[in-house]
Design brief:
291 residues, 36% helix, globular, 4-stranded mixed β-sheet, 60s Ribosomal Protein L30, Chain: A, alpha/beta, 2 domains
Length: 291
């Protein structure tokens, strides 16, 4: 019982931290040697070996054929994966994807920035105090440890997004004439990062509950930023939400993400802080598939 309680405690602390990213860059046509920025290099050296590797994503520029670029991005992804494994990290549960040149055209990045592998991870909160006491589980309780990790019962409902109501989702699912349903989420992130703030945790679990209760729903997350172009940030924030759902058991084929930088503002021109706040957002578009 002590083990289960500790797992639950660390799991929620880790979620509060949110995913972070290391970027491994490659020269043209290279797949067996990489470079890290000085910050990422120091970060990699300081990571705990218990760090959870969530995803390893291979990318390419558009210089070769699509087939060549897809294979090259796969080789880069596999090389970084082996490197992390040799360094002692557990990569057995990571989501590994070769994306080829699929992100290059829309990213607006230079060719050198497209030749990379993104490693998304969450560090364990092992510095937190461990729970040592045994806590008996009431025989009347129907929620087990796994359920508590994948429901919104741990946090106040008042902080969840009221737009994502059960009735709105049910109407959409039952309406055969409507193909898409879009919501602007109210998620908040640490400044210029992909880390979701603690107060946004209820909305993440609300999304998870919607996906669990409606197996015909698919969700695509769209990341947007304000002010200056920042493709990687917009994409990373959308990806952070998608990865949360994947980590909690939602099938990969039901979840997708896109980054739009600052190309699709809700308010223009951006004059006030409120204008910029409305343009910094992650939206979700629900679609339906056969059960």
């Amino acid at each position: 019982m002590k083990l289960s309680i500790l797992f639950l405690f660390v799991s929620f602390i880790s979620f509060a931290q949110g995913p972070d990213t290391l970027q491994f860059y490659f020269d043209t046509d290279e797949h067996d040697s990489f470079e890290l920025s000085s910050n990422d290099n120091e970060r990699l050296k300081s990571l705990y070996k218990e760090t959870r590797i969530l995803a390893i994503l291979g990318h390419c520029d558009e210089r070769g054929s699509k087939e060549y670029n897809l294979n090259l991005s796969r080789k880069r992804m596999e090389f970084v994966r082996r490197h992390l494994k040799n360094e002692g990290f557990d990569v057995s549960k990571s989501s590994n994807e070769a994306l080829g040149e699929s992100m290059a055209e829309s990213s607006g990045l230079s060719l050198s920035k497209c030749r990379r592998v993104d490693v998304l991870f969450i560090e364990p909160a092992i510095e937190e105090e461990e729970v040592e006491e045994e806590v008996p589980i009431s025989t009347s309780a129907t929620t087990n440890i796994e359920d508590r990790n994948t429901t919104n019962s741990e946090v106040p409902d008042t902080f969840a997004n009221p737009a994502l109501s059960e009735s709105a989702i049910e109407k959409f699912v039952d309406n055969e004439e409507t193909d898409e349903l879009e919501f602007d989420l109210t998620l908040l992130f640490v400044n210029v990062s992909t880390r979701v703030l603690e107060e946004s945790k209820p909305e993440m679990f609300q999304l998870l509950e919607i996906m669990q209760n409606n197996p015909t729903l698919n969700a695509t997350f769209h990341g947007h930023v304000c002010c200056n172009p920042h493709q990687e940030l917009s994409e990373g924030r959308a990806r952070a939400v998608a990865l949360f759902l994947l980590e909690h058991g939602i099938a990969r084929e039901r979840v997708d993400f896109l980054g739009h930088s600052n190309t699709q503002p809700k308010v223009w021109p951006e004059v006030t802080d409120d204008d910029r706040k409305q343009n910094r957002r992650v939206a979700v578009v629900f679609t339906k598939s056969d059960a």
